[in-house]
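Hi L.,

You mentioned the student needs an example of a multi-chain input paired with its predicted structure. This one should do, with 853 residues in total across all chains.
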Amino acid sequence: MSVVAAIPQSAERAAPKNIGDRALRIVLKAAALAIVLLVLAMAFEMVRTSVPSMRTFGWSFLVTSTWDPVAERFGAIPFVYGTLVSSFLALLIAVPLGLGAAIYLAELAPARIRPPIAFLVELVAAVPSVIYGLWGIFVLAPLLRTWVQPALGKTLGYLPLFQGPPYGVGMLAAGIILAIMVVPYITAVSREVLLAVPNTQREAALALGATRWETTRIAVLRYGRSGLVGAILLGLGRALGETMAVTMVIGNRPEVAISLFAPGYTMASVIANEFTEATSEIYLSALIEIGLLLFVLTIVVNALARLLVWSVGGPVKTVRE
Amino acid sequence: MTPGVRRRVNVLMSGLAAVAAGLVILPLLLIFGFLLWQGASAVNVDFFTHLPKPVGEVGGGMANAIVGSLILIALAAALGLPLGILGGVYLAESRDRHIPWLARFLADVLNGVPSIVIGIFAYTVMVLPMRRFSALAGAFALAVIMLPIVMRTSEELVRLVPASLREAALALGIPEWKVLLRVVLPAARAGIVTGAMVAIARVAGETAPLLFTAFGNRFWHQGLDQPIAALPLQIFAYAIAPYDDWHRQAWAGALVLIGLVFVVSLAARMATSGRFTGVR
Amino acid sequence: MADGILVRGLNAWFGEHHVLHDIGISMAPKAVTALIGPSGCGKSTFIRCLNRMHEVVPGARVAGTVRVEGVDVYAPGVDPVQIRRKIGMVFQKPNPFPTMSVFENAVAGLRLSGVRERAVLHEAAERALRQAALWDEVKDSLTKSGTSLSGGQQQRLCIARALAVEPEVLLMDEPCSALDPIATAKIEELILELRSTLTIVIVTHNMQQAARVSEATGFFLLGELVEFGVTRQLFTNPRDKRTEDYITGRFG
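Structure written out for the whole complex:
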């Protein structure tokens, strides 16, 4: 008589007979579903509360530049403009610095100082936005007002970018502060992209007689370039949504102006400043519609960024955001 | 290009990269230095124990804001940590076909949403129905911010627990749920705690979502369904106000806040560095 | 001997781990020398010491003398980058640059040196690809990505890349271990053709391969060079018992 050992069916097919197992599965699934519902509810709620504004202004909301709470006429242009310009300015500064620092950390720095510097970069990212704003008001803005803007005005004042009175606060201050806040993210993600480039690529270049920088240039940067673009987009995503620091230094004027010296306004800032002052339903709804715009914009940018970053090394395990 | 030129280009680019790294870190030193210089003098016993004085009067402290922040963080953690950890465990353990992908995708989406938008969400689901600003609404917003961070670290940590540990327990005849609770989670515990600390350090400094949920309060809060003060909110309010004394207190508050965030970040980093060198 | 590769008292470490012990060997110029031995015996580390690739790993150290075609590779003031320019290397897994075309891969080393004229580059690419027995297969698809080729072709592309800069020495670190038998045969044929034109050192765990392509063979064990001699003699009549044990398959 042979006894055939019963091989238990693989657990994913058989329903667990154990009460404990079933309860656990239900609890875990419920948690996951709760999270799914939460995000969907957020999208739904934002759309629902924007409806009054959407119904009143329709598509013109996206192309009007009037923001008049008294006459109850609202348009998103000044804020979209402010958000895009401040973010673009921030990237202009942050991308070369961030990529350079990432290359330093991943390829060129002596092995012993890499961990402490990487940690310090993380700390820069951990500083709360309101503290950057505080520093911006009391250190950066006066600096710009007293030294930088007058100097720029004197040397490059023929460009419309650098015209107008030097307030200190304004688009330039916002761009600089955003750059400081965004650069550690670009550095951290770029560094991970570069580290994901296989070492065999570096060896191939070194064996040909390439210097360290040449190796980085032809073997690492080229290989990781789509991931690096993704890192930049991730930085953009953060810049778009940054609120407190920008609010404190941008001057809060809902106007489209060419000069970097002029005050401006971003989508996040107007919500932060005026939400609690919104006296009418339509005012509040218009603000929420701006929030919805911001929501959609950041989702698109972040999704694109993630796809690009993953294309180099596979799904990145730890993205410290 | 001669070898000499190539050598010099190499040195130049290495130098530029090092300068870039230095510039990235520089603001950290500038800001911390500035806070120490301006704020250290205002951090005294009064600061921690007194309430804000009426507008225009000198003195007072941020006791209510500090306590308020602690309450908000505690509430947010109570809401966000269990849900986040369970969600992360689900992602690590589940063999379902569609829900894990959806949950992970949406958690990633949530991670990228600006915190002020999350504040709007908290406003519409909590402040509007309750018809008032409240600590609960603020805690809700912070919990939603914490959620994706906690989920991701929990999932990673649970995945890192070696399969051999699990198999040894199962081979002893222990049911799966007990293996999870008594073997896997305790093994991942240190990492999950670290992840929680990172999430807490992140929300401790959040201001935007509190602007129209917790709202702030110049006095002690009267209940969790009432507006409550928070350290970042107070710093913001004082910073944009016209009084010098308030500015000084804002710097002091910022120093306390940044100190808190740094200490927690450092502790979290020290905990993980030991962990990962072993597992890799 | 001023030509060929002369090694005396070579020691190498990874951190505190002493991986090569007092290696002394004299490898003839314009000939093929094979290095055999079980996994982990140090043969890969050894050839990496010849073109100063070993020291790229953090914590790695070298001591001793290495003279390649008369040049003391480790003399103070010598630039490793220059050394590697004169010594080519082919790796275990083919590693063409995926963002470059076949042509760009072949001339990558030349472009690094600053060669710009298209005519010169094209001529060099054709010469190197012919030497690597790859020209006929890729001459119509020079602009396709380097990684669009088969494994065996990729490895020959890497050989072409190394040959394009006209090195004096070619180091090959188990070049066929990731390839199928047909691709392996093609590369062995290639080595036999290159044999009298440059000094080749090939690391292999395949003893039959060593017997087929090389004129001299060295046997490494646990970081030591146990025996070195004419290939035929080492395989038919080894002097050291350890060599005999390895060749007859008693271990490793």
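You could point out the following to them. The radius of gyration of chain C is 18 Å. The CA atoms of residues 58 and 121 of chain C lie 35 Å apart.

Best wishes,
N.
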